[in-house]
Design goal:
The protein is α/β, with parallel strands linked by helices. It is 42% helix and 15% strand. It has two domains: 250 residues, Aspartate Aminotransferase, domain 2, CATH 3.40.640.10; 141 residues, Aspartate Aminotransferase, domain 1 (Alpha-Beta Complex), CATH 3.90.1150. It is built from 15 helices and twelve strands. The strands form two sheets. Strands 1-7-6-5-4-2-3 form a seven-stranded mixed beta sheet, sandwiched between helices. It has a five-stranded mixed beta sheet with strand order 8-9-12-11-10, with helices on one face. Helix 3 runs parallel beside helix 10 and helix 4 packs across helix 9. The structure holds pyridoxal-5'-phosphate.
Length: 399
Protein backbone atom coordinates (compact mmCIF):
# COMPACT_ATOMS: atom_id res chain seq x y z
CA UNK A 1 0.00 0.00 0.00
CA UNK A 2 1.28 3.47 -0.87
CA UNK A 3 0.77 5.88 1.98
CA UNK A 4 0.03 9.59 1.63
CA UNK A 5 2.79 12.21 1.68
CA UNK A 6 2.53 13.05 5.42
CA UNK A 7 2.67 9.39 6.41
CA UNK A 8 5.66 8.91 4.11
CA UNK A 9 7.50 11.76 5.88
CA UNK A 10 7.18 9.80 9.12
CA UNK A 11 7.61 6.20 7.95
CA UNK A 12 9.25 5.89 4.53
CA UNK A 13 12.70 4.26 4.60
CA UNK A 14 12.55 3.26 8.26
CA UNK A 15 11.43 0.13 10.10
CA UNK A 16 12.01 -1.33 13.57
CA UNK A 17 15.49 -2.83 13.88
CA UNK A 18 15.04 -6.59 13.21
CA UNK A 19 17.41 -7.60 16.04
CA UNK A 20 16.44 -5.25 18.87
CA UNK A 21 13.12 -3.73 17.81
CA UNK A 22 14.61 -0.20 18.11
CA UNK A 23 12.04 2.02 16.41
CA UNK A 24 14.42 4.89 15.60
CA UNK A 25 16.95 3.78 12.98
CA UNK A 26 20.21 3.00 14.82
CA UNK A 27 23.35 4.89 13.80
CA UNK A 28 25.59 2.56 11.81
CA UNK A 29 28.78 4.42 12.69
CA UNK A 30 31.12 2.11 10.82
CA UNK A 31 33.58 2.55 7.97
CA UNK A 32 33.41 -1.00 6.70
CA UNK A 33 31.14 -4.07 6.76
CA UNK A 34 32.39 -7.62 7.41
CA UNK A 35 31.79 -10.27 4.72
CA UNK A 36 30.88 -13.79 5.83
CA UNK A 37 33.40 -15.26 3.36
CA UNK A 38 35.51 -14.42 0.27
CA UNK A 39 32.77 -15.37 -2.18
CA UNK A 40 30.27 -13.04 -0.52
CA UNK A 41 32.80 -10.15 -0.70
CA UNK A 42 33.45 -10.84 -4.37
CA UNK A 43 29.71 -11.06 -5.18
CA UNK A 44 29.07 -7.71 -3.48
CA UNK A 45 31.88 -6.04 -5.40
CA UNK A 46 30.55 -7.50 -8.66
CA UNK A 47 27.08 -6.14 -7.85
CA UNK A 48 25.70 -9.70 -7.94
CA UNK A 49 24.39 -9.47 -4.38
CA UNK A 50 22.84 -6.63 -2.36
CA UNK A 51 24.60 -5.66 0.84
CA UNK A 52 26.96 -3.12 2.28
CA UNK A 53 30.71 -2.99 1.59
CA UNK A 54 32.19 0.29 2.83
CA UNK A 55 30.40 3.46 3.97
CA UNK A 56 31.65 5.59 1.05
CA UNK A 57 29.72 3.15 -1.18
CA UNK A 58 26.64 2.96 1.05
CA UNK A 59 25.42 2.62 4.64
CA UNK A 60 22.03 1.72 6.17
CA UNK A 61 21.59 5.33 7.38
CA UNK A 62 22.13 6.55 3.80
CA UNK A 63 19.64 3.99 2.50
CA UNK A 64 16.94 5.25 4.87
CA UNK A 65 17.51 8.89 3.78
CA UNK A 66 17.62 7.94 0.09
CA UNK A 67 14.37 5.97 0.20
CA UNK A 68 12.58 8.76 2.05
CA UNK A 69 13.69 11.66 -0.18
CA UNK A 70 13.18 9.67 -3.40
CA UNK A 71 9.66 8.72 -2.26
CA UNK A 72 8.74 12.26 -1.23
CA UNK A 73 9.98 13.66 -4.55
CA UNK A 74 8.24 10.92 -6.57
CA UNK A 75 11.59 9.63 -7.92
CA UNK A 76 12.77 6.07 -8.51
CA UNK A 77 15.94 6.31 -6.41
CA UNK A 78 18.14 8.65 -4.40
CA UNK A 79 21.75 9.20 -3.38
CA UNK A 80 22.82 10.86 -0.14
CA UNK A 81 25.88 13.13 -0.11
CA UNK A 82 28.00 15.01 2.41
CA UNK A 83 26.60 18.41 1.42
CA UNK A 84 24.36 20.09 -1.12
CA UNK A 85 27.50 20.97 -3.11
CA UNK A 86 28.63 17.34 -2.79
CA UNK A 87 25.37 16.22 -4.41
CA UNK A 88 25.43 18.99 -7.03
CA UNK A 89 29.06 18.43 -8.07
CA UNK A 90 28.61 14.66 -8.15
CA UNK A 91 25.55 15.01 -10.43
CA UNK A 92 27.29 17.47 -12.74
CA UNK A 93 30.50 15.41 -12.98
CA UNK A 94 28.50 12.25 -13.65
CA UNK A 95 26.22 13.73 -16.31
CA UNK A 96 28.71 15.94 -18.18
CA UNK A 97 32.06 15.42 -19.89
CA UNK A 98 34.53 17.57 -21.85
CA UNK A 99 32.88 18.93 -25.00
CA UNK A 100 29.40 19.09 -23.44
CA UNK A 101 27.41 22.27 -22.91
CA UNK A 102 25.18 23.14 -19.93
CA UNK A 103 22.50 25.79 -20.05
CA UNK A 104 22.00 27.27 -16.60
CA UNK A 105 19.81 29.85 -14.91
CA UNK A 106 21.64 33.15 -14.40
CA UNK A 107 20.66 33.40 -10.74
CA UNK A 108 21.92 30.34 -8.87
CA UNK A 109 23.45 29.57 -5.49
CA UNK A 110 26.92 31.20 -5.61
CA UNK A 111 29.03 28.03 -5.33
CA UNK A 112 27.00 26.23 -8.02
CA UNK A 113 27.54 29.25 -10.26
CA UNK A 114 31.29 29.19 -9.51
CA UNK A 115 31.60 25.48 -10.24
CA UNK A 116 29.93 25.75 -13.64
CA UNK A 117 31.23 29.16 -14.67
CA UNK A 118 34.71 29.40 -13.14
CA UNK A 119 35.88 25.76 -12.93
CA UNK A 120 34.17 23.75 -15.68
CA UNK A 121 35.97 25.60 -18.54
CA UNK A 122 39.25 24.03 -17.28
CA UNK A 123 37.71 20.63 -18.06
CA UNK A 124 36.30 21.58 -21.45
CA UNK A 125 32.66 21.87 -20.28
CA UNK A 126 30.96 24.90 -21.84
CA UNK A 127 28.13 26.82 -20.22
CA UNK A 128 25.60 29.53 -20.99
CA UNK A 129 23.91 31.42 -18.14
CA UNK A 130 20.61 32.98 -19.04
CA UNK A 131 17.19 34.09 -17.92
CA UNK A 132 15.38 30.76 -17.98
CA UNK A 133 11.99 32.44 -17.62
CA UNK A 134 12.06 33.21 -21.38
CA UNK A 135 11.34 29.81 -22.94
CA UNK A 136 11.78 31.00 -26.54
CA UNK A 137 15.25 32.30 -25.69
CA UNK A 138 16.04 28.99 -23.96
CA UNK A 139 14.99 27.06 -27.06
CA UNK A 140 17.24 29.27 -29.21
CA UNK A 141 20.19 28.83 -26.80
CA UNK A 142 20.11 25.02 -27.00
CA UNK A 143 23.14 23.68 -28.91
CA UNK A 144 23.75 20.25 -30.44
CA UNK A 145 26.11 19.50 -27.49
CA UNK A 146 23.72 20.78 -24.75
CA UNK A 147 23.38 17.87 -22.34
CA UNK A 148 21.74 19.62 -19.41
CA UNK A 149 19.46 22.48 -18.40
CA UNK A 150 20.19 23.36 -14.78
CA UNK A 151 17.89 25.55 -12.71
CA UNK A 152 16.67 26.65 -9.31
CA UNK A 153 13.05 27.71 -8.95
CA UNK A 154 12.56 30.04 -7.13
CA UNK A 155 16.15 31.06 -7.82
CA UNK A 156 18.59 31.96 -5.10
CA UNK A 157 18.40 34.85 -4.32
CA UNK A 158 16.30 36.68 -6.95
CA UNK A 159 13.16 34.49 -6.62
CA UNK A 160 12.74 34.06 -10.41
CA UNK A 161 10.38 31.18 -11.20
CA UNK A 162 11.34 28.80 -14.01
CA UNK A 163 8.57 27.08 -15.96
CA UNK A 164 9.61 23.52 -15.08
CA UNK A 165 7.27 21.81 -17.54
CA UNK A 166 8.42 24.08 -20.39
CA UNK A 167 12.11 23.59 -19.57
CA UNK A 168 11.73 19.80 -19.34
CA UNK A 169 10.08 19.75 -22.78
CA UNK A 170 12.86 21.84 -24.35
CA UNK A 171 15.59 19.77 -22.65
CA UNK A 172 14.08 16.46 -23.80
CA UNK A 173 13.48 17.66 -27.38
CA UNK A 174 17.20 18.54 -27.50
CA UNK A 175 18.38 15.24 -26.01
CA UNK A 176 19.32 16.88 -22.70
CA UNK A 177 18.20 16.39 -19.10
CA UNK A 178 16.57 18.90 -16.74
CA UNK A 179 18.22 19.16 -13.32
CA UNK A 180 16.39 21.18 -10.65
CA UNK A 181 17.83 22.33 -7.33
CA UNK A 182 14.72 22.13 -5.13
CA UNK A 183 16.42 23.33 -1.93
CA UNK A 184 14.31 26.50 -1.67
CA UNK A 185 11.08 24.49 -1.70
CA UNK A 186 11.42 20.96 -0.32
CA UNK A 187 8.98 18.40 -1.77
CA UNK A 188 6.23 19.80 0.47
CA UNK A 189 6.17 22.92 -1.72
CA UNK A 190 7.20 21.63 -5.15
CA UNK A 191 7.88 18.23 -6.76
CA UNK A 192 9.79 18.95 -10.00
CA UNK A 193 9.65 15.33 -11.24
CA UNK A 194 5.88 15.76 -11.71
CA UNK A 195 6.74 18.47 -14.25
CA UNK A 196 9.29 16.37 -16.13
CA UNK A 197 12.58 17.06 -14.29
CA UNK A 198 15.09 14.21 -14.57
CA UNK A 199 17.18 14.91 -11.47
CA UNK A 200 16.20 16.82 -8.33
CA UNK A 201 18.85 18.11 -5.95
CA UNK A 202 18.74 19.26 -2.37
CA UNK A 203 20.99 20.97 0.04
CA UNK A 204 19.46 18.80 2.78
CA UNK A 205 21.21 21.17 5.18
CA UNK A 206 18.12 23.36 4.72
CA UNK A 207 14.42 22.43 4.98
CA UNK A 208 14.88 18.66 4.77
CA UNK A 209 16.88 18.62 7.98
CA UNK A 210 15.27 21.80 9.23
CA UNK A 211 17.18 22.21 12.47
CA UNK A 212 20.38 23.91 11.35
CA UNK A 213 22.69 21.24 12.76
CA UNK A 214 23.68 19.19 9.69
CA UNK A 215 25.44 19.70 6.36
CA UNK A 216 24.02 17.20 3.85
CA UNK A 217 22.86 16.77 0.28
CA UNK A 218 20.62 14.44 -1.71
CA UNK A 219 20.07 13.79 -5.43
CA UNK A 220 17.08 11.83 -6.72
CA UNK A 221 16.10 10.66 -10.18
CA UNK A 222 15.84 7.60 -12.41
CA UNK A 223 17.40 4.43 -10.98
CA UNK A 224 19.99 4.03 -13.78
CA UNK A 225 21.31 7.56 -13.37
CA UNK A 226 21.41 7.34 -9.56
CA UNK A 227 23.34 4.03 -9.73
CA UNK A 228 25.86 5.69 -12.06
CA UNK A 229 26.03 8.72 -9.76
CA UNK A 230 26.84 6.51 -6.79
CA UNK A 231 29.51 4.52 -8.65
CA UNK A 232 31.13 7.50 -10.39
CA UNK A 233 30.29 10.97 -9.03
CA UNK A 234 30.13 9.99 -5.38
CA UNK A 235 32.47 6.96 -5.14
CA UNK A 236 35.28 8.02 -7.48
CA UNK A 237 35.01 11.70 -8.34
CA UNK A 238 33.98 13.59 -5.19
CA UNK A 239 33.99 11.01 -2.38
CA UNK A 240 31.35 13.27 -0.82
CA UNK A 241 30.07 10.67 1.68
CA UNK A 242 27.44 11.65 4.22
CA UNK A 243 28.42 10.68 7.78
CA UNK A 244 26.06 8.08 9.32
CA UNK A 245 25.41 10.39 12.27
CA UNK A 246 24.40 13.27 9.98
CA UNK A 247 22.21 10.87 8.00
CA UNK A 248 20.53 9.90 11.28
CA UNK A 249 19.89 13.55 12.20
CA UNK A 250 18.57 14.25 8.70
CA UNK A 251 16.19 11.31 8.94
CA UNK A 252 14.99 12.60 12.30
CA UNK A 253 14.41 16.09 10.85
CA UNK A 254 12.43 14.79 7.88
CA UNK A 255 9.85 13.08 10.11
CA UNK A 256 8.33 16.53 10.76
CA UNK A 257 8.91 18.08 7.30
CA UNK A 258 5.18 18.08 6.44
CA UNK A 259 4.36 19.95 9.66
CA UNK A 260 7.23 22.44 9.60
CA UNK A 261 7.23 23.63 6.01
CA UNK A 262 3.58 24.80 5.73
CA UNK A 263 4.09 26.82 8.92
CA UNK A 264 7.27 28.40 7.51
CA UNK A 265 5.29 29.36 4.39
CA UNK A 266 2.27 30.78 6.27
CA UNK A 267 4.53 33.01 8.35
CA UNK A 268 6.49 34.09 5.25
CA UNK A 269 3.28 35.34 3.64
CA UNK A 270 2.53 37.48 6.72
CA UNK A 271 6.09 38.86 6.80
CA UNK A 272 6.03 39.63 3.06
CA UNK A 273 2.66 41.40 3.35
CA UNK A 274 3.98 43.47 6.26
CA UNK A 275 7.17 44.43 4.40
CA UNK A 276 5.31 45.38 1.24
CA UNK A 277 3.36 48.05 3.14
CA UNK A 278 6.43 49.66 4.74
CA UNK A 279 7.54 53.01 3.30
CA UNK A 280 11.26 52.12 3.74
CA UNK A 281 10.90 49.11 1.41
CA UNK A 282 11.37 49.60 -2.34
CA UNK A 283 10.39 46.09 -3.40
CA UNK A 284 9.47 42.68 -1.98
CA UNK A 285 9.89 39.52 -4.06
CA UNK A 286 7.70 36.76 -2.63
CA UNK A 287 5.77 34.44 -4.97
CA UNK A 288 2.61 34.62 -2.82
CA UNK A 289 2.17 38.38 -3.16
CA UNK A 290 -0.34 39.71 -5.70
CA UNK A 291 2.43 42.03 -6.92
CA UNK A 292 4.79 39.12 -7.74
CA UNK A 293 5.11 39.10 -11.55
CA UNK A 294 5.15 35.29 -11.90
CA UNK A 295 2.51 34.53 -9.25
CA UNK A 296 0.36 32.50 -11.64
CA UNK A 297 3.24 30.24 -12.70
CA UNK A 298 4.33 29.87 -9.06
CA UNK A 299 0.78 28.83 -8.10
CA UNK A 300 0.72 26.27 -10.93
CA UNK A 301 3.83 24.42 -9.82
CA UNK A 302 4.12 25.18 -6.09
CA UNK A 303 1.68 23.90 -3.45
CA UNK A 304 2.74 26.68 -1.05
CA UNK A 305 4.73 29.82 -1.89
CA UNK A 306 7.82 28.91 0.10
CA UNK A 307 9.41 30.79 2.97
CA UNK A 308 12.22 32.69 1.24
CA UNK A 309 11.83 36.41 0.63
CA UNK A 310 14.07 38.91 -1.17
CA UNK A 311 13.74 42.63 -0.47
CA UNK A 312 15.32 45.84 -1.65
CA UNK A 313 15.19 48.87 0.62
CA UNK A 314 14.80 52.44 -0.65
CA UNK A 315 18.25 53.35 0.69
CA UNK A 316 19.96 50.53 -1.29
CA UNK A 317 22.99 48.72 0.14
CA UNK A 318 23.58 51.07 3.10
CA UNK A 319 19.96 50.76 4.19
CA UNK A 320 20.06 46.97 3.79
CA UNK A 321 23.21 46.81 5.87
CA UNK A 322 21.63 48.90 8.63
CA UNK A 323 18.58 46.63 8.61
CA UNK A 324 20.58 43.41 9.00
CA UNK A 325 22.68 45.04 11.72
CA UNK A 326 19.58 46.13 13.63
CA UNK A 327 17.44 42.99 13.91
CA UNK A 328 17.43 41.30 17.31
CA UNK A 329 15.33 38.18 16.72
CA UNK A 330 16.29 37.58 13.08
CA UNK A 331 19.84 36.20 13.03
CA UNK A 332 22.40 37.62 10.62
CA UNK A 333 23.61 34.35 9.09
CA UNK A 334 23.72 32.53 5.76
CA UNK A 335 21.82 29.25 5.21
CA UNK A 336 18.07 28.84 5.15
CA UNK A 337 15.27 26.52 6.20
CA UNK A 338 16.22 26.54 9.89
CA UNK A 339 13.75 26.95 12.76
CA UNK A 340 15.43 30.31 13.42
CA UNK A 341 14.69 33.17 11.01
CA UNK A 342 17.82 34.24 9.15
CA UNK A 343 18.71 37.35 7.20
CA UNK A 344 21.77 37.93 4.99
CA UNK A 345 23.23 40.06 2.21
CA UNK A 346 23.94 37.90 -0.90
CA UNK A 347 26.26 40.35 -2.74
CA UNK A 348 28.77 40.34 0.13
CA UNK A 349 28.04 36.86 1.50
CA UNK A 350 26.54 33.83 -0.33
CA UNK A 351 27.17 35.31 -3.79
CA UNK A 352 30.44 37.14 -3.08
CA UNK A 353 32.33 34.87 -5.53
CA UNK A 354 30.52 36.70 -8.36
CA UNK A 355 32.15 39.80 -9.86
CA UNK A 356 30.12 43.02 -10.12
CA UNK A 357 29.37 42.22 -13.78
CA UNK A 358 28.28 38.68 -12.90
CA UNK A 359 26.02 39.98 -10.11
CA UNK A 360 24.46 42.45 -12.54
CA UNK A 361 23.97 39.74 -15.17
CA UNK A 362 22.29 37.55 -12.55
CA UNK A 363 19.97 40.40 -11.55
CA UNK A 364 21.36 40.41 -7.99
CA UNK A 365 21.41 44.04 -6.92
CA UNK A 366 23.90 45.26 -4.32
CA UNK A 367 20.99 46.22 -2.05
CA UNK A 368 19.15 42.88 -2.10
CA UNK A 369 18.57 41.35 1.34
CA UNK A 370 17.62 37.66 1.58
CA UNK A 371 15.34 36.44 4.34
CA UNK A 372 14.66 32.87 5.45
CA UNK A 373 11.49 32.85 7.52
CA UNK A 374 11.68 30.46 10.46
CA UNK A 375 9.22 28.96 12.89
CA UNK A 376 8.92 31.74 15.48
CA UNK A 377 5.62 33.53 16.14
CA UNK A 378 4.92 35.77 13.12
CA UNK A 379 4.03 38.72 15.37
CA UNK A 380 7.46 38.59 17.02
CA UNK A 381 9.23 38.41 13.65
CA UNK A 382 7.22 41.35 12.32
CA UNK A 383 7.76 43.41 15.49
CA UNK A 384 11.52 42.86 15.18
CA UNK A 385 11.54 43.98 11.54
CA UNK A 386 9.43 47.01 12.48
CA UNK A 387 11.91 48.09 15.17
CA UNK A 388 14.85 47.47 12.79
CA UNK A 389 13.23 49.55 10.04
CA UNK A 390 12.36 52.31 12.52
CA UNK A 391 15.88 52.25 14.01
CA UNK A 392 17.17 52.68 10.51
CA UNK A 393 14.90 55.64 9.85
CA UNK A 394 16.31 57.29 12.99
CA UNK A 395 19.87 56.48 11.86
CA UNK A 396 19.01 57.91 8.45
CA UNK A 397 17.82 61.20 9.98
CA UNK A 398 20.92 61.40 12.16
CA UNK A 399 23.29 60.56 9.31
C1 LIG B 1 19.90 26.66 -3.40
C2 LIG B 1 21.13 26.04 -2.78
N1 LIG B 1 21.67 24.98 -3.36
C3 LIG B 1 22.79 24.39 -2.85
C4 LIG B 1 23.40 24.88 -1.72
C5 LIG B 1 24.65 24.20 -1.20
O1 LIG B 1 24.34 23.38 -0.13
P1 LIG B 1 25.39 22.95 1.04
O2 LIG B 1 25.73 24.19 1.78
O3 LIG B 1 24.63 21.95 1.82
O4 LIG B 1 26.58 22.39 0.35
C6 LIG B 1 22.85 25.98 -1.08
C7 LIG B 1 23.49 26.52 0.16
O5 LIG B 1 23.12 27.55 0.67
C8 LIG B 1 21.69 26.59 -1.63
O6 LIG B 1 21.12 27.67 -1.07
Amino acid sequence: MTYKFDTQCVHLGTHPDPETGALATPIYQTSTFAFRNADEGARRFQGEEDGYIYTRLGNPNHTAVEIKVAGLEGAEAGAAAASGMGAISAVLWTALKGGDHVLAGNSLYGCTYSLISHHFPHYGIESTFMDLTDLDAVRRAMKPNTKMIYCESPSNPTMAIADLEGLARIAHEGGAILVVDNTYCSPVVQRPIEFGADVVLHSATKYLNGHGDVIAGVAVGKRDFIEKLKMEGLKDMTGATLSPFDAYLLLRGMKTLHIRVPRHCETAMKVAQFLEKRPEVEHVWYPGLESFPQRELAAKQMKYFGAMIAIELKGGYEAGKRLINSTKLWTLAVSLGDAESLVQHPASMTHSALSDDELAAAGISKGLVRMSVGLEDPDDLIADLKQALEAQAVAGIRA
